[in-house]
Amino acid sequence: xxxxxxxxxxxxxxxxxxxxxxxxxxxxxxxxxxxxxxxxxxxxxxxxxxxxxxxxxxxxxxxxxxxxxxxxxxxxxxxxxxxxxxxxxxxxxxxxxxxxxxxxxxxxxxxxxxxxxxxxxxxxxxxxxxxxxxxxxxxxxxxxxxxxxxxxxxxxxxxxxx
Length: 162
What we know:
about 160 residues, mainly alpha, 5 helices, about 65% helix, disordered C terminus
């Protein structure tokens, strides 16, 4: 009997025949399992262990991708493409307002240059995402952000005039 052998080894604490100290026995058995796992890892071929670890990483990556897609479908995440589309619309409207403002020419150029930098940063994020090594990994899904939280979406944000 397995339990009898564990009691003989001292892994579980026997009080009397058929009766064991639950708390000490559980602790002992957990320790026994940990030691057995360590021993198994030491005796396993390193290539087999590396393969098992690689498969685990693959399963974790798949699970994260599925989680990201589920969060996107639930409306908790937006894609980089959606962010770029919203930014492009917002920046086009902002550009028109800036060009029509009374700002001096050099200030208009600087503001427009700053706005273009925002769109370029989003495009770089998209590019790094498509390579699979950027911030917005997992199937083109951005980190938590909602398009409606971006300033001026749906209406141009008023720009301060001098």
